[in-house]
Specification:
There is one protein chain. With about 250 residues, the chain is mostly helical. Helices cover about 75% and strands about 0% of the residues. It is built from 9 helices and no strands. Helix 4 runs antiparallel to helix 8. It starts with a helix and ends in a 24-residue tail after the last helix. One of its GO terms (molecular function) is cysteine transmembrane transporter activity. One of its GO terms (cellular component) is membrane. It is a multi-pass membrane protein. Keywords: Membrane, Transmembrane, Transmembrane helix, Transport.
Length: about 250
């Protein structure tokens, strides 16, 4: 077998066995599933709340502004605190809260404003998607190896989620679409659990990497290991995150 084929086979196998890869993929599809439905049926949902067609068009402007607020705030907070998964978890919670409101509050003229606010709360999916891309790029090593595999999986999951998402909104469930929002709530639950498990997994991986570096270089002081004073000898090598002993996750 040619050397390049052996390398591709090895790195592909490692990527497909990497729990981080599959966790990020699961987050991508669980985030895209509600997005597909809410994006395709947003005007219909708002109309069922009691707003006119013209009002739904005007409210879509505010919806776009809120999505941008979610996106820019996620980018700022991620850079400010150097956290991604925790922010993903936090930005999923408004989606859960808004969905619970849809399930519990009946549609009427008195409740349409509250339902509208709940609908705006469910627009945090854009922030989660951006943060998930940051998690992928920051925790998957290898320029031409693992990264290519995870990118294909990630965007395939995104496409599948957006394609399947609208299918849960059925005509016979109008006006409240309870079955669709129950499905969304289940998906959000899976997403929150996956984010939590991935966070714990990456923290554990960092601990093991520090321990490995310390055992390999016992002359280093404990403080140097804790401070992660690395030489970055492999910064430009095409090594996966598991092959690179200096790779730390965040």
């Amino acid at each position: 077998m040619p050397k390049w084929r052996a390398v591709i086979s090895q790195t592909s196998g490692e990527a497909l066995r990497d729990s981080t890869v599959w966790a990020v993929t699961i987050i991508s599809i669980t985030n895209a599933l509600p997005t597909g439905g809410l994006g395709a049926f947003s005007n219909i949902i708002l109309t069922e709340f009691g707003f006119t067609q013209l009002q739904t068009y005007l409210l879509a402007i505010a919806q776009g502004v809120i999505i941008m607020i979610f996106l820019f705030s996620a980018a700022y907070l991620s850079k400010r605190f150097n956290e991604r998964l925790i922010l993903e978890f936090i930005y999923t919670l408004p989606n859960v809260a808004g969905t619970i409101v849809f399930l519990c509050v009946p549609t009427s003229a008195k409740t349409k404003v509250g339902l509208l606010l709940a609908f705006y709360c469910t627009q945090g999916f854009g922030a989660v998607a951006v943060l998930n891309l940051a998690v992928m790029s920051g925790n998957i090593g290898g320029v031409y190896s693992d990264t290519i595999i995870i990118q294909e999986l990630l965007f395939s999951a995104w496409a599948v989620g957006n394609a399947v998402g609208p299918q849960v909104f059925r005509d016979n469930d109008k006006p409240r679409y309870l079955k669709a929002f129950v499905a969304h709530l289940v998906v959000y639950g899976v997403q929150l659990v996956t984010i939590f498990v991935l966070r714990v997994h990456l923290m554990r991986r960092n601990v093991l990497k520090r321990r490995e570096r310390y055992n390999r270089s016992p002359e280093q002081t404990g403080q140097e290991v804790l401070d992660e004073s690395l030489a970055h000898k492999h910064a430009f090598d095409d090594l996966t995150d598991q092959e690179n002993p200096e790779f730390t996750t965040n």
